Amino acid sequence: MDQLEIVRLTVDSPHLARVAAWQNAEWGHLTPGETPTSRLKALRGECGDAGVPSAFAALCDGQPVGTASLVADDMSVRRELSPWLASVFVPPEWRGRGIASRLVQRVEAEVAASGIARLYLFTPDQQALYRRLGWQDHEALNYRGEDVTIMVRRLDAE
């Protein structure tokens, strides 16, 4: 793989439409009524300058090969938990190359630089990846018809 670069997405990024399409295809079932157009609008709202919210893309030769976001709220039934690592996605043909790990670490660095002590995520099937990266199980629940694990990453000195 050539040089992998993790970049902050901006509202005028040429990669937003592709990233929004990935997100809609992967997680649209969790947000009934969402369309590619509404997902793109929401993604633009995640394109902050620093801290929460922020959106990132992994680029290889200038083309997006993965994405991850840092958002204040990613689960309607656990609004007391914040912020969230969200929308970690790498297309199947790019998996197994450490791209997701690099994206997660970039979001963790963003959170740490903001002085935030904890970060949350939920996943139905990637618990092993996140555990390898230092995340711990927080809670198991059924969210919108899917069994998921909420995980926490402590970034303070606990």
TrEMBL record:
<dbReference type="InterPro" id="IPR050832">
    <property type="entry name" value="Bact_Acetyltransf"/>
</dbReference>
<keyword id="KW-0808">Transferase</keyword>
<dbReference type="Pfam" id="PF00583">
    <property type="entry name" value="Acetyltransf_1"/>
</dbReference>
<dbReference type="InterPro" id="IPR000182">
    <property type="entry name" value="GNAT_dom"/>
</dbReference>
<feature type="domain" description="N-acetyltransferase">
    <location>
        <begin position="4"/>
        <end position="156"/>
    </location>
</feature>
<dbReference type="InterPro" id="IPR016181">
    <property type="entry name" value="Acyl_CoA_acyltransferase"/>
</dbReference>
<keyword id="KW-0012">Acyltransferase</keyword>
<dbReference type="GO" id="GO:0016747">
    <property type="term" value="F:acyltransferase activity, transferring groups other than amino-acyl groups"/>
</dbReference>
<protein>
    <submittedName>
        <fullName>GNAT family N-acetyltransferase</fullName>
    </submittedName>
</protein>
